[in-house]
Write a structure and sequence with these properties.
The chain has 451 residues and is α/β, with parallel strands linked by helices. The chain folds into two domains: 268 residues, Ribonuclease Z/Hydroxyacylglutathione hydrolase-like (Metallo-beta-lactamase, Chain A, 4-Layer Sandwich); 174 residues, Rossmann fold, CATH 3.40.50.10890. The protein contains 14 helices and 22 strands. Strands 6-5-4-3-2-1-22 form a seven-stranded mixed β-sheet. Strands 7-8-9-10-11-20-21 form a seven-stranded mixed β-sheet, with helices on one face. The longest helix has 27 residues. The termini are close together. The relative contact order is 0.15.
Length: 451
Amino acid sequence: MNIVFLGGTETVTGSKFLLESGDTKVLIDCGLFQGYKWLRKRNWQSLPLDIKQLDAVVLTHAHLDHSGYIPRLYQQGYRGPVYTHRASRDLCGILLPDSGHIQEEDARFYERHKLSKHEKPEPLYDRQTAERCLELFEPVDFGEVFNVGNIRFRLQPSGHILGAASIIVEAEGKRVGFSGDVGRSEDVLMYPPQPLPELDLLLLECTYGDRRHPEADVWEQLAAVVTDTVNRGGVLMVPSFAVGRAQAMQYLLAKLMDDGRIPRVPVFLDSPMAIDVSAIYHRHADQHRLTDQDCARMTQVVKYTHSVEESKALADINYPHIIIAGSGMMTGGRILHHMKRLMPNHRNTLLLTGYQAGGTRGAHLQSGAESVKIHGAYIPCKAQIAALDGLSGHADYRELHDWLQASALAPKTPIQLIHGEPDAADAMRLYLQEHSRYEVEVAEYRSILKV
């Protein structure tokens, strides 16, 4: 059995791992590269494999850095099955068409304003292609065993977001685990990740391999940011991932208002995708901690802005309010239009609520950039920049170690670190070497590992 590392190595995006056993070839995850331009260019390159020989795709979860390349694969002729959890299928039904739509809109915008070196900028794929590829999805449940050729697969909950899974693979007398993105034991929304069985090899994410999540109370942090912004007469902008983070923010804000810990100000969820995703969270209530009452209260406190006209109308509000909009790393979406308008005002606040991959606008602002480029123009940042690190959906290095220790892994289990920036991956390697007996290596892009 061979594993070819085609993404999710030396970076946190572009997750793709080709699993080969005999004549069977399966792609574990099929994600987009995001962040730096040199990384995004890889999305336009053909994969180093014969699409006609690919038997299946198996997804850990729905985030675009794990699923967003599927429409591109479809565009290149792939018509095999895509196996993933039922909730992930539902989420991909929203995320992938939206991704295609955003790319179409960006291409039109760049053509209209002549911001591209290409005479006619093209999207990587369009909405129609993304909608068509959904026909390939074959949903499975946690614990359900399915076969592709001579390889057996099973999904188990990994926390992180709705439907997120670790994938357990068995072939040629070996058992391999793909961690997927691993959630936290005390997550606001999700249940803890399920411990792993005994494995011959583990591919382990290390997004937070060099950081601990702060022990500060996320409720107190958010209450302070909201109160300070309102007292300045400003607007709170919350760039948010449509899956997980947007739902957590709605819940936190509604509860803080009901408890009298923050002023009652209007809250707008300006993301049609996040609105639809919230309905999916209601549908899969067995997978998360929120009660029916919690979900109902969120919709009473938060106003949903569906149309472009409703989104533009937010510019006419001249009193303190809160806008939650995508995307979480500010790589696209409606948040960019709000940032262009609101960032130059020192009374306003931009609240970062999740990991910001290198090369994204979020990463630039987090590192103290005085301006960011949006739609071809540099927008000065006079607004306050705040971060709510406690909401991360990723386990940090200590939490990952605790998860491994709670699993059935043998002391000498080989581990390949994936899905982390170089510094994070190396820090995770050193930590595990010092605190365990696992045989830890950092996976390299395009390398081939024989199991």
